[in-house]
Each structure stands twice: as structure tokens, then as C-alpha cells.
């Protein structure tokens, strides 16, 4: 599910670089991999476990940001029996990682790839994550291959999964795919991304699911200062995400029928959280009639409009509480669904960047074959949710701190200026302290007042502090 993305375009100036480096030190983020891990990665990169089934004749393609080399997924889309066939290849990390080895232990320590505005800290060494295990064009790679047949409305008819050797033919990016589809120059496997993606979006609406098109904040350096712009997601981003969601839902259904698995679950947001968002919408002058559902409102917003973008950022608070739920031997958990997906769902499509996905794939392969999962998978299930929760907390802390640092860099030369804000959070035990969200630029900062803050109300605020090296952004009522 979406998080608040932020990145620096260009070379960040010294204070920002120093602050980000200090954050990595404070959070004990590893600078590199231990020698034994690198040595094992170099060895398995040359000699992975090769699957028996050869699917290299299928012309797969990938859709990712243009600078990405850690390519977890490749797809091929086609028409089939009045509907569609989705072939979705997922990088087979288990073909490289020996259970209990140095690579495996380090992955359990790191849990997921961490993204800073200026760099990333990978889950696996780049010789694997951006090399031998990545579905880069032109190289044959071990993969977990899903074949999902859909009817003409995009509903799942059958889903099969097996190990296979695959070869991607093309590395595409979102803007390029969007351009080809809009200009009607895309070949059918690419053109069908829109047709299938839109069909799946209609089904998402039908079941009450929600996809947040959260814009990416981009900080661009100009003459030793910074400007904030948004990269709003393209329709192609959403269509591509629907293929991943389709696969995650198929994986969840397969594991639930099998009786052993690991789900990504999210309870329904409490009424208080939705009421808080209603107040924020009112303050941002976004109409939200009481007869309109939260899901319907989200679909009506345009992430290219600053007020809508700011509100979408706040909507991510309803995703708090997501976790991993393990079950086994036919005893199903009380909660099996993800509230935003509005269906059972599993993380299985990003094993190069997320530890749990390797285990979900193994459980799906065992379920499809009607076999017992490997012992190393069963032994890890009880501790996996806690490890993933700790990794998610660390990633969340990192994300919040990075946003604070970059926003301070953005505003460091504007201390004393007055901005239009909206009070989006008030501390229950200290109502004079809270958080304010600026409409332009879309910044969230701490505010301290002499009187109780008006939650959900618009408020002109003065910037009192902004230093990426020493403080976070601070505001006071103007």
C-alpha cells in the first residue's frame, strides 16, 4: 500500500546530505553488507537453482521507474477464451538464498529495502537484487510464474503458480507505457494493461476497495535553495498496481484454501479516524457530503491539485494497523481481509525488497503442488510477523524523519513567513500542541500555541524554525 514518497532530484547540498547521513547513523542503518554475505551472494549469483520448466519463449516486459534495476515483476498479457490471461513472473529469491546461510540471516536482520531521499539500502546485495535475481531484460532468470485467467469483466477464473525460467524482453517505464497506450502505438501485451487495469479498477469499486493515488513529493535544488513539486501518479501506475493486487489476492485465496499461509491484513478504520479526516477535508475546502462514502470521495480527487494532494497524504493514516497474519493446519484467523483491498490479500510480488514475500511464494508453490511447505518456511512462520512489524516500524520512522529533514531544507530560508495551514492533529493531553498541514507547499509540521488548537480548522501560521541539521519544522499561530 502507498506510503508518503519523497525524493531529492539533483545533488543535495551539504547540510541536507549531512542530516541524512546522521539519520542513517542514528537509526543504525548498515552502510554495507558483511564480507561473508557478499561472498555468498557472488557465489550463488553464478550458480542459482535452475527450475525445470522453461518459459523463456514468453515475451515478458517490466514496468518500473526508469532508474530502477531491482525488478521484482515481469508480465505478459493476452486475450484468452473471451477474457484475458495474465502471466506474472516474480523474482525467485529462494533460488539464490540458502536457508540458514549468511544471506538468509542478513535478510532477516534487514527485513526490507529502505528508501532515503538520496539513496536506498537494499535487502539483498546488488549483485543479486540489481543483477542475477532481477528480471532485467535479456537475461534468463528463475521466477515464480503465476498464470491467472480472467473473464471478460476481469474476474478471476483460475490461478496457477509454478517455478519457471523466464526472460524479459523489455524494460519499460510508466511515462513511456502511458505514451504508447495513449497514442495507440503499444503492442497488444502492453495495450492490454489499460484494458485489464480498468476492468480490475471497476471490480475494486464494486467490492468497496480503495487505491490511494498518493503523489510523490520531489524536492528540486535551484541555486542553493529548494522548490517542492509533485509527481502525480499516471493511470499506467494504477493499472500496473492492479496486476500486482490481482496476484496478491490470488495468493491469499490459494493459501486460505490450503490452510497454511501468511496474509497482509488491515482492520476497518475506526469511526474516529474517518471523522478526523472529514474535519481535514472541510478545512481544505474539499466537499464531502455525508451520503458519499470515503472510497467514493478518494476516487473523485485529483492528485495534481495541491489541496487534493495534501488530503491524500492525510488519508494514509487510515492504513495504520496493517500487519502480517500467519495461520496453519486449517485454523484460519479471525481477520483474513485487508480493509483497503476489501478482500483477502498477501504480499508476494516484491521478494527482492521485502522478506515476507519469499515465504508467501513458497507457501503458494506448496499449495499449488499439494505438498508440505519446506521445513525452513514452517520454522520461520511464528516469528515472521514480529520481524516484519519491526521492519515496518523502522521504515516508518525513517520515512517520517526523512520527510522532516527534507521539509526543513525546503523551508530553511523562509523562517518568519506566514502560510495558510490546517490543524490536522491535536495532542489529547496537551491541546495547545499538534500538527499543521500547509496547503502550499504540502508540508506537515509541529505547531505550538498559547490556546487550544482548532482541530480540522484552517489557521494562518508562522514558520518559527526550519533547520535540516538540528531541528524539525516548527510553526506557531500567526
Briefly summarize what is shown.
This protein is an alpha+beta fold and 478 residues long. The protein is 36% helix and 24% strand.
Q: What features would you describe in this structure?
A:
It is a single chain. The protein is α+β, with helices and mostly antiparallel strands and 478 residues long. It has helices spanning 14-26, 35-46, 102-110, 126-132, 174-182, 188-207, 235-258, 271-283, 294-300, 306-315, 355-369, 375-381, 384-411, and strands spanning 6-9, 60-63, 73-80, 83-91, 114-115, 120-121, 140-150, 156-172, 216-222, 225-231, 261-265, 323-327, 418-427, 430-438, 444-448, 458-465, 474-477. It has a 5-stranded mixed β-sheet. Strand 14 (430-438) and strand 15 form a beta hairpin. Helix 7 crosses helix 11. The chain is globular.
Key terms for this structure?
single chain, 478 residues, alpha+beta, 5-stranded mixed β-sheet, 5-stranded mixed barrel, 13 helices, 17 strands, 24% strand, globular
For the largest beta-sheet, the strand count, sense and barrel status come to:
5 strands, mixed
Integer-rounded radius of gyration: 23 Å
Average predicted local confidence, pLDDT = 90
Distance between the termini: 36 Å
Number of helices: 13
Structural class: alpha+beta
- Portion of residues within helices: 25-40%
Shape: globular
Q: How many beta strands in the DSSP annotation?
A: 17
Given as residue ranges, the uncertain stretches (5+ residues, pLDDT < 50) are none
Spatial arrangement of strands, main beta sheet: 2-8-7-4-3
The helix/strand order is EHHEEEHEEHEEHHEEHEHHHEHHHEEEEE
Question: Which percent band covers the strand fraction?
Answer: 15-25%
Amino acid at each position: 500500500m502507498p506510503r508518503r514518497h519523497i525524493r531529492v532530484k539533483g545533488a543535495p547540498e551539504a547540510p541536507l546530505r549531512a542530516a541524512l547521513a546522521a539519520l542513517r547513523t542514528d537509526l543504525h542503518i548498515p552502510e554495507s553488507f558483511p564480507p561473508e554475505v557478499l561472498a555468498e551472494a557472488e557465489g550463488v549469483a553464478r550458480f542459482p537453482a535452475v527450475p525445470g520448466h522453461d518459459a523463456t519463449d514468453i515475451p515478458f516486459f517490466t514496468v518500473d521507474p526508469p532508474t530502477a534495476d531491482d525488478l521484482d515483476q515481469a508480465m505478459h498479457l493476452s486475450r484468452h477464451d473471451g477474457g484475458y490471461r495474465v502471466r506474472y513472473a516474480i523474482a525467485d529469491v529462494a533460488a539464490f538464498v540458502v536457508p540458514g546461510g549468511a544471506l538468509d540471516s542478513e535478510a532477516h536482520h534487514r527485513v526490507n529495502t529502505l528508501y532515503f531521499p538520496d539513496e536506498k539500502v537494499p535487502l539483498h546485495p546488488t549483485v543479486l537484487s540489481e543483477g542475477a535475481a532481477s528480471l532485467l531484460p535479456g537475461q534468463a532468470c528463475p521466477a515464480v510464474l503465476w498464470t491467472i485467467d480472467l473473464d471478460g469483466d476481469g474476474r478471476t477464473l483460475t490461478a496457477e503458480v509454478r517455478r519457471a525460467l523466464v526472460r524479459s524482453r523489455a524494460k519499460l517505464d510508466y511515462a513511456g507505457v502511458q505514451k504508447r497506450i495513449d497514442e495507440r502505438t503499444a503492442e497488444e501485451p502492453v495495450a492490454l494493461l489499460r484494458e485489464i487495469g480498468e476492468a480490475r479498477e471497476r471490480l475494486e469499486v464494486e467490492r468497496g476497495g480503495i487505491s490511494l493515488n498518493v503523489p510523490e513529493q520531489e524536492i528540486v535544488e535551484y541555486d542553493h535553495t529548494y522548490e517542492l513539486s509533485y509527481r502525480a501518479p499516471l493511470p499506467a501506475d494504477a493499472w500496473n498496481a492492479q496486476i500486482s493486487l490481482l496476484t496478491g489476492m490470488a495468493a491469499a485465496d490459494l493459501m486460505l484454501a490450503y490452510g497454511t499461509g501468511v496474509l497482509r491484513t488491515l482492520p476497518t478504520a475506526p469511526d474516529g479516524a474517518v471523522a478526523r479526516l472529514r474535519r481535514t477535508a472541510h478545512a481544505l475546502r474539499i466537499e464531502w457530503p455525508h451520503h458519499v462514502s470515503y472510497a467514493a470521495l478518494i476516487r473523485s480527487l485529483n492528485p495534481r491539485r495541491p489541496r487534493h494532494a495534501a488530503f491524500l497524504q492525510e488519508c494514509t493514516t487510515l492504513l495504520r494497523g496493517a500487519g502480517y497474519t500467519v495461520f496453519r493446519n486449517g485454523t484460519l484467523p479471525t481477520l483474513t481481509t485487508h480493509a483497503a483491498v476489501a478482500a483477502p490479500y498477501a504480499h508476494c510480488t516484491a521478494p527482492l525488497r521485502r522478506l515476507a514475500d519469499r515465504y508467501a511464494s513458497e507457501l503458494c508453490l506448496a499449495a499449488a503442488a499439494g505438498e508440505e511447505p519446506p521445513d525452513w518456511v514452517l520454522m520461520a512462520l511464528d516469528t515472521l510477523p514480529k520481524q516484519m512489524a519491526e521492519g515496518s516500524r523502522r521504515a516508518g520512522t525513517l520515512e517520517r524523519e526523512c520527510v522532516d529533514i527534507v521539509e526543513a531544507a525546503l523551508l530553511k530560508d523562509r523562517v518568519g513567513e506566514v502560510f495558510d495551514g490546517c490543524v490536522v492533529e491535536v495532542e489529547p493531553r496537551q491541546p495547545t500542541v499538534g500538527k499543521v498541514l500547509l496547503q502550499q507547499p504540502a508540508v506537515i509540521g509541529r505547531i505550538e500555541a498559547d490556546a487550544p488548537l482548532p482541530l480540522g480548522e484552517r489557521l494562518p501560521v508562522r514558520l518559527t524554525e526550519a533547520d535540516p541539521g538540528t531541528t524539525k519544522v516548527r510553526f506557531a499561530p500567526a
